């Protein structure tokens, strides 16, 4: 579908401007995949997908990596159904795979305050991986990416709350192929 206007799936809702089109996302993810392929040549990285927001990104990223990757899933919650972080990160689903000695790439949807990432890093580092890198589709301009040790970033974006391509607002909009700004009722 090339029409990037709010689609029939979501026409009753609060979608603002398209921030990143399907094509822009696809192109950048291919680039990141090529970079990962180069950086991890000869290795077998484990992609740790942070549910639920990173599922779409992780799927596309894995398709773009020309290495024998493995994938596992972890789920955390810090937002509930709100668009504001609760300030408390909770582990909702743990990994099945043992991380010891593995080359782990943590795949995130968006780094905002960095709270989620700090929590996940601590938790995963404690399990003795051979290496741990972070790959995020999006990062806020305000995020301290260096301090948080983020190696791969798709796009840096301003402060608007965004939805689509895996990201939700109260569980909606994850199935959009593009990313749009969310405009709540009281906007
Ligand atoms: P942080 O802990 O870095 O403040 O927030 C990271 C998490 O908050 C992300 O993994 C994501 O689930 C959620 N989040 C932050 N900003 C946005 C946003 O603009 N849209 C959506 N849908 N989720 C966001």
Overview of this structure, please?
The chain has helices spanning 22-39, 55-64, 115-125, 145-148; strands spanning 15-20, 46-51, 70-77, 90-93, 103-111, 131-140, 150-157, 162-163, 179-182. Helix 1 (22-39) packs across helix 2 (55-64). Helix content is 23%, strand content 30%. It has one domain (15-77, 89-182): Rossmann fold (3-Layer(aba) Sandwich). With 187 residues, the protein is α/β, with parallel strands linked by helices. The strands form 2 sheets. The protein has a 6-stranded mixed sheet with strand order 4-3-2-5-6-7, with helices on both faces. It has 4 helices and 9 strands, in the order βαβαβββαβαβββ. Bound molecules: guanosine-5'-monophosphate.
Please state how the strands of the largest beta sheet are arranged side by side: 4-3-2-5-6-7
Which stretches of 5+ consecutive residues score pLDDT under 50? Answer: none
Task: Estimate what percentage of residues fall within beta strands.
Answer: 25-35%
Work out the radius of gyration: 16 Å
Which sequence of SSEs, written as H and E, runs from N to C?
Answer: EHEHEEEHEHEEE
**Average pLDDT metric:** 91
At CATH level 2, the architecture is 3-Layer(aba) Sandwich
Q: Which fold name fills CATH's third level, the topology?
A: Rossmann fold
- Assembly classification: single chain
* Major sheet: 6 strands, mixed
Structural class: alpha/beta
Number of helices: 4
Highest-level CATH class: Alpha Beta
Annotation, overall tally of beta strands: 9
Return the domain count: 1
* Structure ligands: guanosine-5'-monophosphate
State the helical fraction: 10-25%
Overall 3D form: globular
| First-to-last CA distance | 29 Å
């Amino acid at each position: 579908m090339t029409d990037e206007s709010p689609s029939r799936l979501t026409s009753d809702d609060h979608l603002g401007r398209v921030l990143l089109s399907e094509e822009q996302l696809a192109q950048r993810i291919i680039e990141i995949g090529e970079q990962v392929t180069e950086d991890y040549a000869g290795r077998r990285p484990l992609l740790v997908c942070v549910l639920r927001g990173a599922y779409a990104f992780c799927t596309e990223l894995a398709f773009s990596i020309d290495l024998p990757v493995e994938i596992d899933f972890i789920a955390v919650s810090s937002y509930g159904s709100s668009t504001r972080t609760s300030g408390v990160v909770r582990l909702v689903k743990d990994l099945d795979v043992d991380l010891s000695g593995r080359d782990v790439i943590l795949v995130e949807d968006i780094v905002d305050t960095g709270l989620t990432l700090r929590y996940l890093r601590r938790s995963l580092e404690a399990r003795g991986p051979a290496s741990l890198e972070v790959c995020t589709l999006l990062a806020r301009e305000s995020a301290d990416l260096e301090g948080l040790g983020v190696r791969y970033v798709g796009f840096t974006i301003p402060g608007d709350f965004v939805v689509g391509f895996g990201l939700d607002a109260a569980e909606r909009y994850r199935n959009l192929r593009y990313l749009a700004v969310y405009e709540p009722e009281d906007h």
